[in-house]
Fold this protein.
Amino acid sequence: MDMAMDAQALNTFLATDFAQVASQYRVESAARDRLVARLLVGDQHLRPGGTVSGPSIFALADVAIYCAILSRIGPVALAVTTNASIDFMRKPEAGRDLLAECRVLKLGRSLAVAEALIFSEGAAQPVARCSMTYSIPSKKQENSAL
C-alpha cells in the first residue's frame, strides 16, 4: 500500500481538524515504515521539577501513532484509540523537544496496531515506549458521522 498522506498533508490535517492542539505537534517525516512526530515542549507540558509530564508524553505517542496510521489510510478523523499501553523508562532531558518514532505493526480494515518510541531530541535512549490499537471506522460510519 502506498502512502496516503505525507508529512505536509498530516500537518495540514492536524491544523484543520485538531486546531486546539496542532500548534504543539509537528510531523517531521512520514514514510511507509516509519513516522517521526515532535512535541514542541512548552511550559504547559512541564511538571514540578522541570520534566515533561507523563500525560504530555502519552499525548505525543497518541498523536504520532494516529498520524502514522493516517499516513497509510488517509484522513479518517473518526479513527480512535481502543487500547494503549505505555512504559515510562527514564526522565526526559530538560529543555528539549520530544520525538516519537512510530511503526505501524498491523493494518487491517477495522483495526490498526502501532508502536512508538519517545526520545528527548538528540538523546540515544528512549524515555518511553507505547503501543496502541486504533479502531478504524468503515467508510459508511465515517460518512454518516460527518
Observations:
- The beta strands are 25-31, 34-39, 46-47, 51-52, 80-88, 98-107, 111-120, 128-135.
- The longest helix spans residues 54-73.
